[in-house]
Amino acid sequence: MRVLVTGASGHIGSAVVPELLGAGHEVVGLARSETAAAAVGAMGAEVRRGDLEDLDGLRAAAADADAVIHLAFDHHRMMLAGDFAGAAALDLAAVRAFGDALAGTGKTFIGIGMVREGDDPFSASPRAATGRVVVELAERDVRSVLVAVPQVVHSRRDRQGFVPTLIAIARGTGVSGYVGEGANRWPAVHTLDLAVLYRLALEKAPAGSQLHAAAEEGVPVREIAEVIGRHLGVPAVSVPAEQAADHFKFFAPFITFDNPTSSAGTRELLGWQPARPGLIADLDEGHYFAGE
Q1: Burial status of residue 182 (CB atoms within 10 A of its CB: 0-12, 13-18, 19 or more)
Q2: How many CA atoms are closer than 13 Å to the CA of 284, on its beta-carbon side?
Q3: What is the DSSP letter of 211?
Q4: Coil, helix or strand at residue 81
Q5: Of 21, 24, 25, 48, nearest in space to 37 by CA
Q6: Are 271 and 227 in contact (CB under 8 A)?
Q7: Left, alpha or beta for 5 (phi > 0: left; psi -120 to 50: alpha)?
């Protein structure tokens, strides 16, 4: 299958591309820079230059593929600039462009997200609208699939996610913090296990599937902070909720996420069997703390 992968040189994409190539698929990686293009080419994929703001380019790239795996997202705008709504709006426009190109073809589109209803707090997220658009693509003869990627995707490839961010804050403040009792839980998955799930989704997931990619249902944030503190040689401390904004800065809205997630249905549907180390074991390997 000829597969267009956005975000191909990124954290998740750099694992998904080799996984697909190893299974015999032809991969085209979207690259927005010369550095990204070199990384995509080095993996053995075909390079297509472009970015999420070039909607005509996205439509053309999708029309030339059998499937699209959409992994790109403007994390810099979301995390560092604090413009989550702007990043989500850019992503929504890109998904709609892909949908326009794929409508009526029966081709595959795999996006990130989950459609949530009712009182679920995540249903009001700026990114929730994108998930609904992906689901609605099934009504336009697109084999649409959603993958709910956990808050924590961990491995040696992880440079900008939740864990590196917590580590950077702990280095800067001299304490490894959590809010309150730190009992809120983050679901987690190793990057390489997630890459396998994307391949299985491409090859086997029925149209309209909503897949949970959590290898671990929920790791308490206090446990994560304690491991970080031990490796950095700083105390793990509770930060009062009223001080969280000052302590965690731009990361404050994320530190209290509590989103335990089961992937039992996904494992049964696709035969997915995560085999890589869990989050705490991966942290204890030490690579997150090397070179500093």
Answers
A1: buried
A2: 8
A3: E
A4: coil
A5: 48
A6: no
A7: beta
- Taking only the tens place, the pLDDT of each residue in 93-121 is 999 999 999 999 999 999 998 876 554 54
Q: What is the pLDDT of residues 39-90, one digit of tens each?
A: 999 999 999 999 999 999 999 999 999 999 999 987 665 555 556 678 888 9
- The Cβ-side half-sphere exposure at 195, using a 13 Å CA radius, reads 23
User: For residues 30 and 7, is the Cβ–Cβ distance under 8 A?
Assistant: yes
Residue 113 is classified by DSSP as -
**204 in helix, strand or coil?**
helix
Is the CB of residue 55 less than 8 Å from the CB of residue 94?
A: yes
Residue entry with tokens 């993996």: 43
Residue whose tokens read 């550095």: 35
d(C-alpha 167, C-alpha 48), whole Å:
34
Task: Report CA-CA distances (Å) from 54 to 50, 60, 98, 275.
Answer: 7, 10, 11, 38
Write out the two tokens for 288. 């997150």
Place of tokens 């694992």: 15
Which residue, chain included where needed, has tokens 């086997």? 204
Q: What is the DSSP letter of 32?
A: S
Count CA atoms closer than 13 A to 77's CA, side-chain side.
13
Lookup: tokens for 70: 């959409």
Rounded Cα–Cα distance for residues 167 and 76 (Å): 18
Instruction: Count the helix, strand and coil residues of the chain and give each as a percent rounded to the nearest 5.
Output: 50, 20, 35
Residues with Cβ < 8 Å from 156, sequence gap 6 or more? Answer: 287
